[in-house]
Amino acid sequence: MPIDFSGTWVMETNDNFEDYMKILNIDLVTRKIAIHLSQTKVIIQDADKLTIKTLSTFRNYEISLTIGEEFDEYTKGLDNRMLKTLVNWQGDTLVCTQKGEKANRGWKHWIEGDKLHLELYCEDVVCHQVFRRKQ
Ligand code: 1AG
């Protein structure tokens, strides 16, 4: 049985988000707004199906997927790119690869204690976000 990421998670830290946005060619004005946002993750995990909502006062983003099945991801409201995205288990870590225009793009989610971690990477940039479970 893999672990369950389901729940509501509130952002605590967001390291190197500016460089991650830059490498995705996000414009300066958008970056200035986005850098100050508190993001909330709402995750619904049901067997091999996963919905992840990223919520903020500025924009929301949502993906729904089946683990192990590649799908077309359109990063609407983020960098607006088309990706071929695949999420798999690597032990208790969710590992995502996002094939597209940008090299070495993807993310990893894992849990440590009551913290949800997210590493977002693209080319040589890594952004590390930590969320705490909302009671
Ligand atoms: C993601 O997480 C990223 C979800 O897929 C959003 C997090 C960061 C934003 C990504 C790139 C920056 C692009 C534009 C900035 C503009 C608005 C920021 C809005 C932030 C809230 C949506 C992996 C997984 C879920 O958890 O897909």
UniProtKB/TrEMBL annotation:
SUPFAM superfamilies: Lipocalins. Keywords: Transport. Residues 7-24 form the Cytosolic fatty-acid binding proteins domain. It comes from Hemibagrus wyckioides. The keyword Transport applies. It holds the Pfam family Lipocalin. GO terms for molecular function: lipid binding. This is Cytosolic fatty-acid binding proteins domain-containing protein. PROSITE patterns: FABP. It comes from the Eukaryota. Belongs to the calycin superfamily. Fatty-acid binding protein (FABP) family. Gene3D superfamilies: 2.40.128.20. InterPro entries: Calycin, Fatty_acid-bd, ILBP, Lipocln_cytosolic_FA-bd_dom.
